[in-house]
Write a structure and sequence with these properties.
The protein is an alpha/beta fold. It is built from 15 helices and 14 strands. A 9-stranded antiparallel beta sheet has the order 1-7-8-9-3-2-5-6-4. The chain starts with a strand and ends with a helix.
Length: 471
């Protein structure tokens, strides 16, 4: 008799929806699907850190071996999980594929429904992936969500499993995984939605995390946009979705009035006569205050991203999947280019956020199920400035301690944004975000301690800009 049970449900949902692909075909047997996951590495992101593991049959000589698992897996919790993103060599997104954005939105809806249905559960992030024989590129990649439920026994456990099966069925999924703790080892069971166990294997913890998060072993599995063209393609695909086609079409129509795709960025760089200074940092580090004060001090123009012409739609895009959300912010950065050049003809420009924040938040979000050690290494292509976007003269990066940042947020007496909630809730997310900023190159961030007074911060920034002969 099993002493403790854990339920982790992975729905098979392919955001690229390409039929007749072995890895995602609904005609595959449950055992074939299980063999695919048996060859992969998986992870859960706990508050204490990520837990990476593989699944395999118990080696003959280790049938009695005990493995060490995170305490949260040992405390009689129920866990539920479902897929949010799927990628494989045969399921790469294509320009002519109309279902990519639609399926991202469906998975987003699934995520929201899980949150609303299981309000007493804690939402975790999960991933599963497999590398090719050379261990350099992805064969398979999947991100998802996991829920933990305290006190999973009897009727409570049964009700959660039944409710989850209802949601799985609603989204046309055929099976899930159950994790059972037995004799100091976790057993992963493949279970059909009718409750039949098809296969099982031992959860084997890994000693090390990957050297680079698998989301950044491909240019297609992350939300960082290095070209306007790629962002536009993602948004164009969204026009096939009745849910957001109006929002996206209006935004793209507005953008077309400001973005001249025929003009190269080199032309804009040559036309710029005065410094273009960007101020970056987490929420409540003093960015807006510094932008205002520095602009006054330099007789410069103060600007912000996203631009006013599409800013009123920001909250709507912030509620969408990360890739669509970052495509919107990329659009905003490119809209600002012509205005920056126009203003820099006569005076300096000081901008409140630009590409660095768009990229850093995407990297920190994409690298879930890992701490800062799994970020793409320094020098990785993801930290390079986009070739088709005007480059700042300098990027100021304001930092404060988390205690000071939290104190400032509370003094605002405002409803926290989605990003602010994520920053406050997850130490791992904050660490990944800060480190992502620090790894940006060409231009790199100039880090300034913003814990002192407004005037002291302003003087510190001016001193640094003078040292670099920017002002």
């Amino acid at each position: 008799m099993f002493k403790r049970q854990f339920l982790v449900i992975f729905t098979r949902f392919n955001p690229f929806h390409i039929p007749n692909i072995r890895a995602v075909s609904m005609n595959m047997t449950c055992r074939e699907r299980f063999n695919i996951w048996r060859e992969s590495i998986s992870s859960f992101e706990f508050d204490s850190g990520p837990f990476y593991f593989t699944v395999n049959n118990t080696p003959e000589g280790e049938k009695q071996k005990r493995y060490s698992y995170p305490g949260r897996l040992m405390n009689e919790n129920i866990m539920l999980s479902c897929t949010g993103f799927k990628y494989g060599n045969e399921t790469k997104p294509r320009k002519d594929h109309p279902n990519f954005a639609r399926n991202l939105l469906l998975n987003h809806s699934l995520h929201i429904e899980l949150q609303e249905t299981f309000k007493d559960c804690c939402l975790l992030k999960t991933l599963s992936y497999a590398l090719d024989e050379g261990q350099n590129s992805l064969e398979y990649f999947e991100k998802g969500f996991a829920l933990t439920f305290e006190g999973g026994h009897g009727e409570s456990r049964q009700k959660i499993e039944k409710d989850f099966q209802r949601i799985v069925t609603k989204y046309e999924q055929s099976h899930y995984f159950r994790y059972v703790y037995q004799c100091h080892r976790m057993v992963k069971q493949l279970v059909t939605t009718s409750g039949q166990v098809e296969d099982e294997g031992i959860v084997i913890p890994l000693r090390e995390q990957p050297k680079c998060h698998p989301a950044y072993l491909s240019g297609e599995t992350n939300s960082v946009f290095h070209t306007y063209e790629r962002a536009k393609e993602v948004l164009i695909e969204c026009t096939d979705s009745a849910e957001i086609q109006g929002l996206v079409r209006e935004t793209m129509a507005t953008a077309s009035q400001y973005i001249d795709e025929d003009d190269g960025v080199e032309k804009y760089q040559e036309q710029r006569k005065h410094p273009f200074i960007v101020v970056e940092g987490l929420d409540a580090t003093g960015k807006s205050t510094l932008v205002e004060n520095l602009a006054l001090e330099l007789n410069a123009s103060a600007m912000r991203s996203p631009p006013n012409c599409i800013r009123e739609r920001r909250s709507k895009f912030d509620a969408l999947p990360e890739m669509i959300r970052r495509a919107y912010y990329t659009l905003g950065n490119h809209i600002l280019t012509s205005e920056v050049v126009e203003k820099c003809a006569t005076r300096a420009v000081v901008m409140d956020r630009f590409w660095h924040s768009t990229a850093a938040y995407a990297i920190a979000t994409d690298t879930a199920c890992g701490d800062k050690t799994v970020l793409p290494p320094e020098g990785h292509w993801v930290y390079n400035w986009p070739k088709d976007l005007i480059k700042p003269t300098a990027v100021i990066f304001l930092t404060v301690t988390e205690a000071i940042r939290d104190q400032r947020l509370n003094q605002r007496n405002e409803i926290k944004t989605q990003e602010e909630k994520a920053l406050s809730a997850s130490k791992l997310f904050r660490e990944r975000l800060l480190e992502s900023y620090r790894r940006m190159k060409n231009p790199a961030c100039i880090e300034i301690d913003a814990s002192s007074s407004k005037e002291e911060v302003l003087q510190a920034v001016k001193k640094k800009l003078k040292e670099l002969e920017i002002i």
